[in-house]
Design goal:
The protein is built from three helices and three strands, in the order E-E-H-H-H-E. By secondary structure, it is mainly α.
Length: 97
């Protein structure tokens, strides 16, 4: 179970998300490595990518497995895909927190 961080000061505390499988890999280093700062990928973003893109689950099914709504899964996917694409295009290191 991952405790999420709240962005800003308003609103309710976010509920915890469940990560079924932790990654043994902690970072990806491109060759040749770009000069820009590394991209930081949260474990819940990686889990959303794994469930939807690797296991071909729907966003609703992934939300049920992670204990959250489809909207939160969509937001996690958008963020993770943006970070991974940026890292691949710009040759940036990917760090998994």
């Amino acid at each position: 179970m991952m405790q999420r961080r709240r962005r800003g000061r308003q609103g309710r505390r976010p509920s915890p998300l469940y990560v079924d499988q932790r990654s043994a890999t902690k970072e990806f280093i491109p060759n040749p490595e770009g000069a820009k700062e590394p991209v930081s990928l949260e474990p819940v973003e990686l889990e959303a990518l794994r469930l939807i893109d690797l296991l071909n689950l729907s966003q609703e099914e992934a939300g049920e497995k992670m204990g959250t709504s489809r909207g939160t899964i969509w937001r996690l996917l958008q963020s993770a895909r943006r970070k991974v694409t940026s890292a691949l295009i710009e040759g940036r290191k990917i760090k998994i927190e």
